[in-house]
Amino acid sequence: MSEVIGYYGTGRRKTAVARVYLRPGEGKVKVNGKEYESLNDYFKNPAWTKHAIEPLEVTNTLGKFDLVIRVNGGGLSGQSGAVRLGIARALLQYDQKLRPVLKKYKMLTRDPREVERKKYGLKKARRAPQFSKR
């Protein structure tokens, strides 16, 4: 059995988790087991797509890899951030010399912000009910 060459990276953002596999190819995209023409067909919003594939653009590797992505949790915005980090980490496995470029654009940093939980007696995490004098 032939060994498939692939590079793996895990990305997280908010509550989304993305497992990204880069395989040498011509730029095919497979998200959660479904083939897509481009990542834009999954994310719908061009800004989210651009954000997700930014590591490939800055390293000039766009079109050199087939993307196999498993992503779950969160919304599409968080998922695009998770995919971005996953792609950046997988590119490091491919070539360590890309590290300075990815660090320059802050693509190797995990954004630690999470949604604050709602507290009892409040309308949201911090929003208290309007005070009524009478």
Regarding quaternary structure, what we see is single chain
Strand order of the largest sheet: 1-2-5-3-4
- The number of distinct β-strands equals 5
Approximately how much beta-strand content do the residues carry?
Answer: 15-25%
Radius of gyration (Å): 18 Å
Distance between the termini: 78 Å
Helix content range: 25-40%
Query: What is the general shape?
Result: elongated
Describe the fold and architecture:
The protein is α+β, with helices and mostly antiparallel strands. The protein contains four helices and five strands; from the N terminus they run ββββααβαα. It has helices at about 40-45, 45-60, 75-95, 100-105; strands at about 5-15, 15-25, 30, 35, 65-70. The chain is elongated. The model has no long low-confidence stretch (mean pLDDT about 95).
